[in-house]
Amino acid sequence: MNAAVLVVEDRRSLAEMLAETLRKEGYEVELVMRGDVAVERVRHGGPYLAVVTDLKLPGADGLAVLRAARIADPLLPVFLITGYATVETAVAALKMGARDYFPKPLDIERVLEVVRAACEPRRSLLSTPPTGEGTQELVGSSPIFSGALTALRRVAPTDAAVLLLGASGSGKELFARALHQLSRRKEGPFVAFNCAAVPESLVESELFGHERGAFTGATTRHVGRFEQAHRGTLFLDEIGEVPIGTQAKLLRSLEEHRITRLGGEGEITVDARVVAASNRDLDGAVIEGSFRRDLFHRLSVFPIRLPALAERRDDIPTLTLHLLSRAGDRHNVGVPALRPAAMAALVLAPWPGNVRELANLLERVVILAEGHTVGVGELGLDPVACRSGLDDSDARGLALRLCAGEIEELARFLGIPQTALRERG
Question: Both 78 and 27 in a single domain?
Fold first, then answer.
């Protein structure tokens, strides 16, 4: 069943009109006429797509509904219906995390526009199927990202070597961890090793281990990553940085499932599935001679390309909600609501650092906002860089849909006339 919009209104005629209007737009609607009932629904029901509530209600007012919703689900968009005398209170409610307010008499077209902008990413987040235990970080439903997820699910139950290709910050380690969780090795260890994080002279020792006295400074035996990953998964990040001299030994280990520690005499059998990743052009490295062709083919039995964030901008609103929630949980602080223009600007930003850059920005926002609503000017984005996103017609259209009633605010941030923004959309 699809998530419903919870409508809370004590005037039956208005309540039924709102419910019917939303249903005609394709929303499922749950209607209640008391504030205290709505509080119980958001606490123990749902998940809801959105809440549209009058400010003045019997049993509990709309602010109580808002507070309950923010506690139960900080990402749930809440809209207030206000009379003229309560607009001041409604504006204050925005600071408490309400998404927007609708003064009476209702402008139904505006209501639908604003609700639609909030519900689009919310619906996507709620409908994203889990990729498996421990893989909830893989959020997105764009075609290019869904294709990568489909490939992941297909190869995970096998023992085939997987090569993850993608720019830095695109989520290669998250994919590797998801693959491990979806494999028959999930009860075994997941061992990650960044091949670029240690000096070249130590890569071999880190991979295969060493015996005491194998080299100067080797005062104790060291068990390498292959042994650590026995009966589990070994993730070799930045595989293109492995020194050419070590690549032959790595190839032999992959083919024969045996390793020899540095300074050791006997061979050790290891059973580890290898998942490699690179942000380099390995085909080019093979051609120039810095990466062995036979090793490349051995590692890339099943290559999966991870798209850059700019290639899947339609996932940004959903990712934003997910990352805000994750940051709030990590720091034990309230999750801020983003104003429509702020969400639109996130879609337009270039994100050279991909998901990692978006996650870092939103973590900073969560810490600074302290649960209060965040506008576009508080994100710290570069308006000039965001203007470049307008050249992408899909991103521009999505930003305009998400912006809802704050097109003027978005245009002001971007430094262009509102009319120009509308004309480009």
Answer: yes
Between CA 210 and CA 207 the distance in angstroms is 9
pTM (predicted TM-score): 0.80
Q: Give the whole-angstrom CA distance, residue 320 versus residue 23.
A: 27
Within 8 A by CB and 6+ apart from 238, the residues are: 194, 195, 196, 197, 277, 278, 279, 280
Task: Give the pLDDT confidence of 362-388 residue by residue, as tens digits.
Answer: 999 999 988 788 999 999 999 999 999
Please count the other Cβ atoms lying within 10 Å of the Cβ belonging to residue 402. Answer: 26
Q: How many of the other CB atoms lie within 10 Å of CB of 254? A: 17
| Residue (of 194, 198, 153, 186) closest to 273 by Cα position | 186
Question: Is the pLDDT reported for residue 43 higher than 70?
Answer: yes
Token digits of residue 160: 């085939």
Please give the structure tokens belonging to residue 264. Answer: 């050791």
Q: How far apart are CA 425 and CA 288, in angstroms?
A: 45
Please return the burial class of 194, using the count of CB atoms within 10 Å of its CB with bins 0-12, 13-18 and 19+: middle
Whole-number pLDDT of residue 272: 95
Question: Which residue range(s) make up the domain with 91?
Answer: 4-127
DSSP states along 82-129: E-GGGHHHHHHHHHTT--EEEESSP-HHHHHHHHHHHHHHHHHHHHPP
Q: What is the CATH number of the domain that holds 147?
A: 3.40.50.300
Which DSSP state fits 337? Answer: P
**E strand or H helix at 7:** strand 4-8
